[in-house]
Design brief:
293 residues, mainly alpha, 10 helices, disordered N terminus, transmembrane, membrane, transmembrane helix, 5-bromo-4-chloroindolyl phosphate hydrolysis protein
Length: 293
């Protein structure tokens, strides 16, 4: 489907020019590309080997091909999971160590290909070298939870689960708005998501804020996702200008409210710190360890 671009002299310029937001100001290049894409291409010569070999070797080459393609997919998913882990201040380690499984599948695929084309000794060498080089190139999965030190484990787990659910709503918004085929709207949604993630980070820094932000991480984001899905389905068919204006107004309201909630939580945290400092100073003064001036 053709993409619609919006500029100064484009249709809808009046409704979009004043609402241009830099949704990519904190964007980083994903590591789930480049070298990972080569992993999908590298085993393809095994197709030729398979269909120019006797039946038994053909089956072995095809199994090796499947294992190596699955290894590439697991590696890419592992890198995506690691990026999400690193972006958060409080996060649980991935339940499935995808990059480690990618290394194991790479070793398995190369071993099967080695047996089919050479022999057991060569297969062992291929497996050891392939698994080791894969681990060296892409690293291991995060094996420990992050950011739980100094916080109640139960509260930290609740925050991690709430943020994971909230991120799933944001990802669903991305998938939906892409169907609308409008780059300006994609940037607008990205801007709102950046504001929402600032709230996520604030809650992660102090899990006690979860109660005050739960509606934003749950009900409001779920509503935003549902509205985005319905809007994208309608706009991709009709290009309804009024629907677009209503949707942009919704995003404006959501972004303002999320930013206000983040600011309020930060002010509350600063107020709590001020109280703690005042109490500590008073105790020091009572113990004669600090002069009252």
């Amino acid at each position: 489907m053709a993409q619609r671009y919006s500029g100064k002299f484009s249709p809808n310029a009046a409704s979009t020019a004043d609402k241009q937001h830099d949704g990519f100001k904190s964007a980083k290049r994903s590591r789930a590309g480049g070298r990972v894409n080569l992993l999908f291409l590298a085993p393809l010569p095994l197709i030729w080997k398979a269909f120019t070999s006797p039946p038994l070797e053909m089956m072995q080459f095809l199994i090796a091909l499947g294992a190596l393609i699955l290894a590439a997919w697991m590696t890419r998913e592992g890198l995506i999971a690691q990026e999400a882990f690193e972006a958060r201040k409080v996060a649980r380690r991935p339940a499935l160590p995808r990059k480690i499984l990618g290394s194991a599948l790479t070793a398995t695929g190369l071993a099967i290909a080695g047996i089919a084309g050479h022999g057991p000794l060569e297969a062992l060498v291929f497996a050891v070298l392939g698994g080791a080089l894969h681990s060296f190139a892409f690293g291991l999965d995060p094996l420990k939870n992050k950011g739980v030190e100094g916080h109640d484990q139960y509260q930290s787990d609740r925050v991690a689960r709430a943020v994971e659910d909230a991120e799933s709503h944001l990802q669903a918004m991305n998938r939906a708005i892409e169907r609308a085929g409008d780059r300006a709207l994609e940037r607008r949604v990205s801007s709102f998501q950046a504001t929402a993630r600032e709230l996520f980070r604030t809650v992660e820094e102090d899990p006690r804020d979860l109660s005050a932000a739960r509606r934003y991480l749950g009900v409001y984001l779920l509503g935003a996702k549902d509205a985005t899905v319905k809007f994208a389905d309608l706009y991709s068919r009709t290009d309804d200008a009024q629907a677009r204006a209503d949707y942009e107004a919704l995003l404006d309201d959501l972004e303002q409210n999320f930013a206000a909630r983040t600011q309020k939580l930060m002010l509350d945290d600063r107020g709590d710190l001020t109280i703690e400092i005042d109490v500590l100073r008073e105790r020091l003064a009572q113990e004669g360890l600090r002069s009252n001036v």
